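ARCHIVE CARD
Drawer: 12
Card no.: 0347
Subject: one protein chain, sequence and derived structure
Cross-reference: see card 0346
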Amino acid sequence: MTPPELSAYFFAQVALIIATCRVVGYCVRRWLGQPQVVGEMIAGVVLGPSLFGYFLPDLQAALFPNETKNVLFVFAQLGVGLYMFLVGLGFRSDHFRAQIGSAAAVSFAGMAVPFAVAVFLAPLLQTVPGLFASDVNQFQATLFLGACIAITAFPMLARIIDERGLTDTRLGSLTLSAGAIDDAAAWTVLAIVLASFGDGPGVAIKAIVGGAAFAGFMFTFGRRLLAPLGRIAERDGKVTHSMLAAVLVLFMLAAFAMDYIGIHAVLGGFILGICMPRGMLANDVQRQLEPIIMVLLIPMFFVYSGLNTQLTVVNNAELLAIAMGILAASILAKGVACYAAARLAGQDNATAMAIGALMNARGMMELIIINIGLQRGIIGPALFSMLVIMAIVTTFMASPLFDLVYGRRERAQAPVTPEPPTVP
């Protein structure tokens, strides 16, 4: 396919992707009370081989030929990397100071139980041909599956809490703290899996040592080197185009560094976002980047995921039973474990149930992980499709379940988190 042909296909595809995501997103918001992101996740599956390709295979193949998938992949990676950068920008360390004890307990339960379930499930799944790659050992399979079950849709969790005016309550602080700790641990485990899944020990050492060195540098010297950007933004009262260009260059370098050492670009974006100065710089960068990321780039990521989702491969009783088993085990391992930990930490029943409902959502974070697993040859299309189902269902149930167990009365009576003490 020539460059002009690729360009023509790309514009047609993007038009279809944006329109479909907005329409499906509107429908799920209007009639199902779900956030836009749930509709976009569904839209990705709709445009893939599971629905569009199943009923109109010739038209779907004509609109999304294999030669164009690499272009979509690059834009999808750019979108998800920038998205994780925004997640890092929104990361609030004061949540940890406010609820660190209870948050650590909830997060530990939300990690320990899923990994215990993965220890049981992974060897069983490896006996089924095509779910895991043949060269994946049991340790790698267990860690990867555990990370998939343990991950939390932290950005969606934050959005639900913010929309319901619970950001400064104990529930909001506790859940956001637990979700942040949870996802940081899951990404660390994923980094270990990716580092070990290479061409010999040298690749693993390069990834682990390089990733640790990058994170260590960013959390120490990196913060100091980035501080002048924050001071300039406060002085000017805005982020100029030149400053935005500098931030984007830093993002690209961070993403390149993580990709180069063999982990993944999204981790570079996330760590950079955490280390950026807060205040005018973070707020204005987010304001300028968020619309183009959420409206243009993220839908491409969802559709690229949908093009790799083949629900038709789950075509017999055994595979369907496995898919339902993974779904049930994931809900019980994550939601129930976090609920129990919150109760043991002294939370009332309604608050604990709300925490379990929110922590159980996987959302886009799950899709990021399983896309990485598929790209790196850790899992096959069948397991990928099963985990897409799990991501959509657990995300879909989070908001209505939260509203059911934590209604208006509980929200009105939610205790406010005390401000952390000011250090003189």
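Annotation on reverse: Confidence is low (pLDDT under 50) at residues 419-424. The chain has 18 helices and no strands.
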